Amino acid sequence: MCLRIIALRFCMLCIWQLIFLNILVPELMFPSLKMIMANKVDTSASSSYYALLITVLVFVIVGTCCAEERSVYLVLMEEEPVAFHGSHLSHEGRKVLALDSEVSKAHAKHLVDSHDQLLQSNLKTGSYNKLYSFKHIVNGFSVHTTPSQANKLKVAPGVKLVEKDRGAKLMTTYTPQFLGLPQEVWAKEGGDKNGGEGIVIGFVDTGITPEHPSFTYDPLNPFTSNISHFSGACETGPRFPSSSCNGKIVSARYFSAGAQAIATLNTSVDFLSPFDAAGHGSHVASIAAGNAGVPVIVDGFYYGRASGMAPRARIAVYKAVYPTVGTITDVVAAIDQATMDGVDILTLSVGPDEPPEDTITFLSVFDVFMLFARRAGVFVAQAAGNHGPDFSTVVSYSPWAVGVAACSTDRSYPGSLLLGNGLKVGGVGLSGPSFGDGEFLCKLVLAKDAVRVNGAFPRTPAYVEECQFPEALDPIIVRGRIVICVFSAGFYNGTSNINAIIDTARTLGFMGFAFVANPAYGDFIAEPIPFAVSGIIIPKVADAQIISQYYEQNIQRDERGFVIQYCARAAIREGRVASFVGQAPIVSRFSSRGPDFVDINRNPADVLKPDILAPGHQIWAAWSPLSALEPILTGYHFALLSGTSMATPHTVGIAALIKQYNPSWTPSMIASAISTTATKYDNYGEVILAEGSYLNSYYPSTHFDSGAGLVNPARAIDPGLVLPAEFEDHINFLCSLPGIDWSVINAATGERCNRSLSHPANLNLPSVTISTLRNSLTVKRSLKNGGSRPETYTCSVISPNGTMVNLSPTWFRIAPQEIQDIEIQFRVIQAGGEFSFGEIVLTGSLNHIVRLPLSVLPISTS
């Protein structure tokens, strides 16, 4: 937008300059005009010629200066893609006809040719550049062109949908124990050396660091399960030789056409290979499927051993996001290829970070690709987003993808600053003690008191109090001392950073640093980061004031305010030793919240989002030493990170374990098992809490914070009942959306609305969400016995406030693989303006407990 405004202003400047020069000194611009004037040509003729030349040149300048900017557009076509052409797939989504057969190859070629022909017939030569042809699970292509050319495609024959690319963004040593994997699930599947065996997990992300120990192959412990259903490939390139695909990594590809179309890639970090220069992709892959028992060593300190959730699962890499840029066109191309290759599970910790502007959320191109991946039998998990704690901030919308929220565990890394008066002030920071065992006190100096008096630098906060520039501080005063650096304007507006403090501390020989809150800016959020020098972050103003008061009481100043004697002392204590106390899990502040919504106006949807809660706060996992986006982590092989990007692979790894234990289950059955067995209680037996907007602010979580609750692997592999919902059900759901134009659904999916649900809440999800309940509504759920024994269930319900909920039947006996329908009648007894929450609990005679969350907005009693 800014570039366009600048271009328009330049156009106007060109025009005004043209007019000015030709009115006042025309001979400077046009020698021909000088000739006309010298030869005393008839003035009427000369003025006409003069005006014509100005007009022509104005159009030339406007056309040059104000040319349309190109963007990437995604285009969906009418004809069926290869995967669903003919009889390629059974209703469970398993492959029937090989996708590399001659028939498939011929159809794929036909689709590519049709894309090329459409572009050639409708767009000007040289006005576009086709980036990809999608042909496996979706028929379409992406093209780099101008808005006017894209508008031509919208009315071209055979085109269903044209959508502008919105861009793609990035959204453990202990979590296996926290989730009970070693004692429960791994033990049932042969231990950590077998968990996930035979399952292929696809990762659409920033790539992978192949030499990392989390991804190495051990020839003494060969894989035993056949993965003949998978047929990937190993693409090579910078830092990624063919040996990188080693048996643990079974496939690696990269997709860059979109990135290269809209940005100039940096060859030092944007490697055109599956290699991960950022670290994000390696982190995500190792959480889900990293090898078991890998030592985590950072700055020479041993933090424990890391294991993925499914340490024997195979890894298929699809790099689609680069340090410089990420595009949806590269991401969906990767989804298309991963599904074609035959991955069992797909991990999407990347994706669009905002809702689509011109369609409903469920029908964006990104969501359509996930729908067809699900149709092809792939379990898809997606990060819920990092825009919490505000409501309706989820970026996972569709019922066919599992949206994952993030929470803490009971592990933390507490640090403290010991003051000379014996007080200990708590903080965070993964660093060793300032000296010895952290009990030796050294002098404490406020950065502002150590500023060079005659230094030639600006007196801005970055120089004076934020410790960003070594040249601002007197080395004699700060060397060998603990320096107090203050959160100020530079940190508030994002121009200052902790890495610069560390560089200053190294350069000037600090004994350590304390980065403290500033009353002028309030408390701030701080995460533990490995510091190469001793340091601690004090994010609370109250604690910073304790330090300030002690400091001022133990220094002497002259009449000008300069310190003449430093008597305050302190020590930074060990901050790298984990503590396992406190309430957990707690929904992380950053984790995006529901309710789900159907459009950019955030009108609520009858779908529960997020679906599930998983650990995503302070997670140790593999990292790329290049660390292209996080300079403070450069050189490290492991990183402690937080985000729903970290929660998603936890869920993915657990899905792999469920798939291994129940190989015939469809994605909807796996998703149902994860949801209905989740727990809503923490380690204190209380309802899981959620972090609010401020430090130390908490409230009891609702389904819009934590979904069904914390994932429970031990129960999820044997849930008792599951709720199937397949492709046709999702289409019927779309067709039942209030006010939906059925032609829009047909345009996006290629499917016609031959039937619809009586209400969107009738989609057979493992939850019920009703965004507008007037008087009463009855919905149905179909439950399947996924076990091998008959079981009797009794039904109970906790009604949401303002409603009365009745179930029919109130008990039932169900045989193995049998389906049992239950009716759920909602009736408003008191209208309100907010959602309220409850649950249905089905208790089985074989100790299975099945929970269905209820979220209802009761509008009126009539």
Automatic annotation (TrEMBL):
GO terms for cellular component: extracellular region. One of its GO terms (biological process) is plant epidermis development. CDD domains: PA_subtilisin_like, Peptidases_S8_3. Residues 102-170 form the Inhibitor I9 domain. Keywords: Glycoprotein, Hydrolase, Membrane, Protease, Secreted, Serine protease, Signal, Transmembrane, Transmembrane helix. Residues 762-856 form the Subtilisin-like protease fibronectin type-III domain. The chain crosses the membrane at residues 7-29, 49-67. It holds the Pfam family fn3_6. Its main location: secreted. It is found in: Secreted. The active site is at residues 205, 280, 645. One of its GO terms (molecular function) is serine-type endopeptidase activity. SUPFAM superfamilies: Subtilisin-like (SSF52743). Residues 196-681 form the Peptidase S8/S53 domain. InterPro entries: Peptidase_S8/S53_dom (IPR000209), Peptidase_S8/S53_dom_sf (IPR036852), Peptidase_S8_Asp-AS (IPR023827), Peptidase_S8_His-AS (IPR022398), Peptidase_S8_Ser-AS (IPR023828), Peptidase_S8_subtilisin-rel (IPR015500), Peptidases_S8_3 (IPR034197), S8pro/Inhibitor_I9 (IPR010259). Belongs to the peptidase S8 family. PANTHER family: PROPROTEIN CONVERTASE SUBTILISIN/KEXIN. This is Peptidase S8/S53 domain-containing protein. The lineage of its organism: Eukaryota, Viridiplantae, Streptophyta, Embryophyta, Tracheophyta.
